[in-house]
Inverse folding.
């Protein structure tokens, strides 16, 4: 860590700051800051939203003059406390130290500079990068083969995401030949259990490297790596370091791979990788680009969520994301840039509405934008099986460095094994635990979220989000973790969440994060008022206990539960289901 002065104000300028919110620009680099003045005391922060880096402007609805509004997703920050007020209980903005005259930013050290290696000349074929599918790249680095984020088969996020690109036919063999694998984070389009299950049948010994995030499980099956330092043990030429994301440090990571002094930067899905400090002029950079990786707003209804509002929102968001990525690439000036990690499709027929409305950025469009603003950067729109030869790419732009798959190769998938995986999820429907309605109490007590003023109605539905006659339909009051039959009379925010029964029960039974439901488009939501409850969603999406509910204990105790603590207002159920169940334990890779 180090610090630098980012803005200096002389005493006259400090004196002339008005009480309340002031926006200031640094004359040196044009960056913007917010200074809040009250009774001669100053508080300051960067004009950069903690959510996804948006710019703040004055909040005209704020009569107290303490709040600014982000232009990106309209979150609101109270600069007198540096707390976000909408969404409530979410982030705290990083305050800059101020000495009255100078704003000082603590900056993260650039760890890749600690022990620099001079780039050595590469031979043709020495370093090749092969795109397999989605976020999965194979790197041949001298004698070692490294693979990023292998999702090669099956769906992700329960059954909501399916591979858009057809991986090369020998992808699984390639994976089994890997010397090391990097998994950036636990989202299932990166940590794919069906893929790892196949891998473990052949190569249970392959080293899997993951960052030492605060939620390592189930990633802790791999080798946990400390952040921001090179692992030197690979071989004399190859090393890599894993870096944290600023917005989701508990979850997201990215990686720098260095071979003979040549750097490959993969920022994967990080919103603000390594707190915004990244190496410039790397040889190859890859990052996500597509957007659409959230249930918001397509799974929402009521209030403002009309089809036209959603369409406008999606259009604007994608445009902002595209501009942000283009700007980032331009500022970092990699020699080659490749957009990836966005090649998924909501292919299941029951998700047609999402597929048709949740439009994503196109890699070609982003690359065209980059070409326009930074013509010196070579861009690569990857096709499955395409190979980049780094030595050729660095030698001369006129050398053909990228070899596309032979013409006639299937680029896009045209069929998916839906039934295998959907049946597998639906097997949870008939699990013994759901015969006893006190599973609800047991589950939410295990989940451990309470003392928060929110009432949620959870409804089990069929494929079309129609409530199932005999499905569960219950209220949870998270203020005191009770299960009332009717909404309480006190003032309270309320959400209604309709979940496809198979996925909901699979999630409950296995103690999984609710990403499968929310990011996987497996629920439909409405809320009053229309407020994002960050604490609630953050808990169910990232903070559930690592060990799942002890359902064996539950079944042992169930008769006493039913005698003494049956929740009220819960309908009984008798729903049939088909076969198979995906279990974490089935897929362990040692
Ligand atoms: S970037 Fe500010 S609200 Fe999303």
């Amino acid at each position: 860590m180090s610090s630098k002065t980012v803005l200096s104000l002389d005493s006259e300028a400090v004196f002339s700051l008005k009480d309340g919110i002031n926006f200031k620009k640094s004359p040196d680099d044009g960056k913007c800051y917010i200074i809040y003045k009250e009774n001669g005391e100053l508080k300051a922060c960067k004009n950069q939203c903690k959510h996804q880096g948006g710019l703040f402007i004055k909040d005209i609805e704020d009569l107290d003059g303490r709040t600014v509004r982000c232009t990106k997703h309209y979150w609101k920050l109270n600069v007198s406390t540096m707390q976000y007020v909408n969404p409530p209980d979410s982030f705290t903005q990083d305050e800059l130290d101020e000495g009255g005259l100078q704003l000082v930013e603590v900056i993260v050290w650039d760890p890749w500079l600690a022990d620099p290696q001079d780039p050595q000349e590469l031979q043709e074929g020495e370093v090749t990068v092969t795109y397999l599918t989605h976020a999965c790249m194979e790197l041949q680095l001298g004698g070692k083969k490294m693979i990023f984020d292998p999702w090669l088969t099956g769906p992700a996020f329960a059954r909501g995401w399916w591979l858009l690109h057809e991986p090369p036919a020998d992808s699984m063999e390639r994976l089994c030949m890997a010397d090391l694998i990097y998994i950036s984070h636990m989202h299932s389009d990166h940590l794919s259990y069906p893929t790892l299950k196949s891998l473990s049948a052949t190569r249970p010994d392959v080293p899997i490297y993951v960052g030492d995030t605060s939620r390592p499980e189930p990633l802790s099956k791999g080798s946990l790596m400390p952040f921001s330092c090179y692992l030197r043990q690979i071989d004399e030429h190859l090393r890599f370091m894993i870096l944290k994301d600023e917005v989701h440090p508990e979850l997201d990571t990215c990686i720098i791979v260095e071979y003979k002094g040549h750097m490959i930067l993969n920022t994967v899905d990080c919103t603000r990788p390594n707190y915004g400090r990244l190496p410039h002029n790397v040889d190859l950079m890859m990052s996500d680009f597509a957007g659409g990786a959230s249930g918001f707003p397509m799974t929402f209804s009521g209030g403002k969520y009309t089809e036209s509002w959603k369409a406008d929102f999606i259009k604007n968001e994608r445009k902002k994301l595209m501009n942000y990525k283009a700007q980032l690439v331009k500022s970092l000036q990699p020699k080659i840039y490749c957009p990836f990690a966005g090649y998924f499709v909501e292919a299941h027929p029951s998700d047609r509405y999402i597929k048709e409305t949740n439009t994503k950025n196109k890699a070609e469009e982003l690359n065209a934008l980059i070409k326009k603003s930074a013509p010196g950067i070579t861009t690569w729109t990857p096709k499955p099986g395409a190979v980049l030869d780094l030595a050729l790419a660095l030698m001369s732009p006129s050398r053909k460095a990228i070899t596309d798959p032979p013409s006639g190769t299937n680029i896009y998938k045209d069929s998916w094994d839906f039934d295998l995986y959907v049946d597998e999820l639906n097997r949870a429907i008939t699990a013994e635990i759901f015969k006893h309605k006190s599973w609800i109490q047991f589950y939410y007590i295990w989940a451990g979220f309470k003392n928060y003023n929110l009432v949620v109605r959870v409804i089990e539905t069929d494929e079309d989000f129609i409530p199932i006659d005999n499905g569960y339909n219950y209220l949870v009051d998270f203020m005191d973790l009770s299960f009332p039959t009717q909404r309480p009379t006190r003032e309270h925010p309320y959400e209604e969440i309709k979940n496809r029964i198979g996925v909901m029960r699979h999630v409950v039974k296995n103690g999984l994060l609710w990403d499968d439901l929310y990011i996987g488009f497996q629920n439909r939501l409405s809320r009053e008022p229309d407020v994002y409850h960050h604490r609630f969603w953050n808990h169910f999406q990232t903070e559930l206990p690592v060990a799942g509910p002890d359902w064996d204990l539950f079944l042992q105790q169930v008769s006493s539960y039913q005698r003494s603590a049956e929740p009220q207002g819960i309908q009984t159920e008798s729903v049939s289901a088909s076969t198979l169940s995906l279990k974490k334990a089935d897929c362990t890779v040692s």
In short: Confidence is low (pLDDT under 50) at residues 568-590. The first helix runs from residue 11 to 15. The first strand starts at residue 2 and ends at 8. The radius of gyration is 25 Å.
